[in-house]
Amino acid sequence: MKDAVYVLGGEQTDFQRNWTKEGKTFMSLFREAVQDGLEKVGLTPDEIKKLNKQNRIGVFVGNFDAEQYAVQGHLGAFLTEVDPCFFGVPGARYEAACASGSVALDAAQTKLRAKDYDVAIVVGMEIMKTVSSSVGGDFLGTAAYYEKEAKGVQFPFPKLFGKLADVLLERYKLDEKRYMGALAEISRINYANAKRNPKAQTRSWFMNNEHANTRGGEFNMAVGGRLAITDCSQVTDGAALVVLANKNYAEEFAKKKGTKLSAYPKIKGWGHRVAPITFEAKVAESKGDKWVLPWTRQTVKDAFDRSGMNTKDIDVFETHDCFTSSEYAAISAFGITQPGKEHEAIEDGVIDFHGKKPINPSGGLIGAGHPVGASGVRMMLDIYKQVTGTAGDYQVEGAKNGLMLNIGGSATTNYVFVVGK
Amino acid sequence: MREIKTVTVLGANGTMGAGSAAIVAAFGKAKVHMLARDVNKAKEGIEKAISSIKTDTIRPRLIPGSYDQDLEKAVSESDWVFELVAESYEVKEPINKRIAKARKPGTIVSTVSSGLSIARLADAFDEDGKKHYYGTHFFNPPYKMILCELVTHAGNDKKVTKKLGEYLDKTLGRAVVYTNDTPAFAGNRIGFQLINEAAIKAEEYSDKGGIALIDAIMSGYTGRAMAPLDTADFVGLDVHKAIVDNLYEMTKDAAHSTFKLPGYFQKLIDKGDLGRKSGQGLYKMTKTPDGKKEKLYYDIKGDLFVPVPKFDIPFIKEANRRIGEADYIGAMNIVKEAKGLEADIARYFIARYVSYSLSLVGEVVESKEMTDLAMGTGFNWAPASAFVDFLGGPKEAISLITKAKLPVPEVLAKAKAGKPFYQLKDILDARSLFKG
Fold this sequence. Notes:
Helix content of chain B: 40-55%
Largest sheet of chain A: 9 strands, mixed
CATH class of the largest domain in chain B: Mainly Alpha
CATH superfamily of the domain at 5-131 and 235-257 in chain A: Thiolase/Chalcone synthase
Order of helices and strands of chain B: EHEHEHEHEHHEEHEHHHHHEEEHHHHHHH
Number of strands of chain B: 11
Low-confidence stretches of chain B: none
Strand content of chain B: 5-15%
Structural class of chain B: alpha/beta
Structural class of chain A: alpha/beta
Shape of chain A: globular
Oligomer: heterodimer
CATH architecture of the largest domain in chain B: Orthogonal Bundle
CATH class of the domain at 5-131 and 235-257 in chain A: Alpha Beta
Largest interface: A-B, 28 and 25 residues
Mean pLDDT of chain A: 97
Radius of gyration of chain A: 20 Å
CATH topology of the domain at 5-131 and 235-257 in chain A: Peroxisomal Thiolase, Chain A, domain 1
Number of domains of chain B: 2
């Protein structure tokens, strides 16, 4: 890809926090995320004012469902509440269910490549603990085809991804015990990784393989067919911010910071594909294909093609493990194994923190948390941290290039970004 | 230090014992001998342990037993003996003698004590035993409150301490605070100082709302999940008494007089009104005639329970609003500038908390980060250093403390302006502890 887009850094909120319990609203979440993020990057209000005067900066907010969770829309305008330096800055909200963060990133990188702006502030946010889990589950149902797949269904998404688990099992004629064991191991790995991440939602929660394998019963209730609570990401409040820039500004910024342009990683490739929205249609379409989720695989391939890279070049992955079955399917979509052989990579420790192709060193959605509209931006931030060697205790040694996969709905909207130096 | 594969928990039927055993069995994957007075009590402890951490998978690792029948055998095969029996030398010392006889060289023995001398308790052991004897002060409930104060004494070996600290941190997921063998260590000394002084002030302002007023003043905007007197009610007035009596006797610091138990606490304890565990204490929940839940508080002068009023204190409303909008400095500015008795009380207690927390650096802990971590993870109270930043920095905090006629701690006096005073931001987001 020509016209490089650089990642200048960012920050996320502590995903363990429950903002409603703290007596704080979505606006407080937004404010803290933006203030912390800009402070971390070193982008001052004066600089933002200056950039805005020159019409070089824009704001891109990823959010899924603030209307229902927080009774608030028009989020693109909300940076003006954080600081007056945002008065006049062009901003809008972007939505694609759980891939909302990625669609905001994509819009930002497009504007930067076109040189419409030189700097983009991308914020992903979701406040979800404003309602009970069953009400929230119904809200999330609007990321599927609500009328057909979610209306009147308690916790529709665990059920949809439970069906994905069924299809994977049947399509590849897997040994059920081995397959379910592999899903449990995905859960174990994500929780174990989250323990090293000081912003992860589950960093003090207990989980091991044994517990993840005890599906059903009082302590690990079945929630979606074969899937139990330990196979699911949790309801999370959180936000993340990254600052992107094109070469025009990244060079200026590097100079200001007394560093080199090469200190900042680039978005090297991206992919965006939309699969049929209903899960049933996805399954029907993919019959006879090697991949159960062919559009997810295609998105990865598109990002590889654009970056001129391949699986072998990627040192670290952040994937959309909203459920263990989605991470399972992602392993072959990344090209780490052939479809149907994903469990081998899991069993052999390939995707473990110290493995050859570590997935979700942050803990992923299962371990780090899944504030829906923030997840894509959080993944970008984590890949940025990994390839700049700033991930602290969850740093994958020597990571130079990383890939993130963010999906919306039942693997409907697929987004992939490849980031590296 | 030996790898910890087998642990004996003494006092395994209590909430703390069962909860701690669950942590060791789950996170540490250790086999745990759950010992209590009799085996049925131990079995009750196993059920409590399982429900505390919500996993049945630890059940096969929890082995019930009794002190009489099983202590020596369990201790002899253990790598760590974790003692949580009643908080007195009279109970702990004889047990320690039995442990000392049965333990193998290299076995860690530790106690959960809120204030007893670790060095004195270590006396029951031979040289190797003393070297491996610690206070491991967990907080209640252990799965939720991740603090562990690791209390050392002069006889410990630094290498063993380091390894044990790493085990508690990395394997058991505790927030480890290293403290010296001083009364009540860090968390309880700071926490119960504030609680007891709040109790004293409640008596002083009994005719203005007493207990309920003080808790309203010390509510969420002052950075605590639970107001201080509500906390006393939660932990039990008898436990509160044991801690502050010990502190009154054993310390002579600038806050000494504030550790004196108020008379009405003793009166309630004598009546058996120990707090939530006995149904009533400083507070009592009741139902109105129309079936709604109602919280009553103990009116000290009237010696009766009356409904908690809805106080209308404008500066608190405004501070809450600011906190609700994530404007922490703005909220503290409101507190700094507000007029009236309630604001004076709020400022006094914030000043006291900051002053006293930081004054323990040097005596109890090596750094302010240790007191910050203790209060943040053991009490869910915003750390003192975070207050310093939200008050506007060291100079502003010193001014508040000076106006309250309280000692300015050395660590604060020496602090450099223009640099965040709170250093644990990436471990504990202090903002999360302020409730709007």
